């Protein structure tokens, strides 16, 4: 990782002071170039927000659409699972959270939207019928449990 001193200027004419997290005089140039965030090595290691996540995770956990993600800086990397698979698009977790919280009204709003969507899936399955997988033993419940493949609803099953 290349480390660069804070030489850039802001649009308002003020100068950057270095790491946005701790104010250190140095930052990682690669993160600045790819994501526009000034952050030092210590903050990358200690702060969860400077991890990168895939587009699939961004859409599932933060309920962001393709148009929402189009305005967030990203990085393309070869897929580590198989070189013939499509390249992964990675986003900075901090920027995803900011966008999602702005869209859904904060962490509580995001959680409420997750809850609303889970309920809609369960209600949709209830109308057309659940598609349960084979029963599996659940040690916490001390019984067998079947899970719907579409909505995730679980039901206890009596073993005979």
UniProtKB/TrEMBL annotation:
Domain XPA C-terminal: start-end pairs: 52-95
GO molecular function, one term: damaged DNA binding
One family name in Pfam for this protein: XPA_C
GO CC, any one term: nucleotide-excision repair factor 1 complex
Primary location: nucleus
Listed GO biological process terms: base-excision repair; nucleotide-excision repair involved in interstrand cross-link repair; nucleotide-excision repair, DNA damage recognition; UV-damage excision repair
InterPro entries for the chain: DNA-bd_dom_put_sf, XPA/RAD14, XPA_C, XPA_sf
Membrane-spanning parts: none
Keywords: Nucleus, Zinc
Domain of life: Eukaryota
Annotated compartments: Nucleus
PANTHER family attached to this UniProt entry: DNA REPAIR PROTEIN COMPLEMENTING XP-A CELLS (PTHR10142:SF0)
Full protein name: XPA C-terminal domain-containing protein
């Amino acid at each position: 990782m290349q480390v660069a001193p804070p030489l850039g200027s802001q649009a308002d004419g003020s100068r950057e002071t270095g790491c946005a997290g701790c104010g250190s005089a140095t930052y990682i140039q690669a993160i600045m170039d790819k994501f526009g965030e000034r952050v030092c090595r210590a903050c990358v290691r200690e702060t969860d927000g400077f991890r990168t996540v895939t587009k699939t995770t961004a859409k599932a956990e933060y309920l962001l659409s393709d148009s929402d993600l189009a305005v967030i800086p990203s990085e393309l990397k070869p897929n580590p699972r198989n070189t013939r698979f499509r390249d992964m698009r990675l986003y900075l977790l901090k920027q995803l959270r900011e966008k999602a919280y702005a869209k859904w009204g904060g962490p509580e709003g995001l959680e409420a939207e997750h809850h609303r969507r889970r309920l809609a899936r369960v209600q949709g399955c209830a109308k057309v019928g659940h598609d349960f997988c084979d029963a599996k033993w659940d040690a916490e419940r001390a019984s067998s449990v079947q899970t719907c493949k579409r909505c995730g609803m679980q039901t206890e099953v009596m073993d005979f």
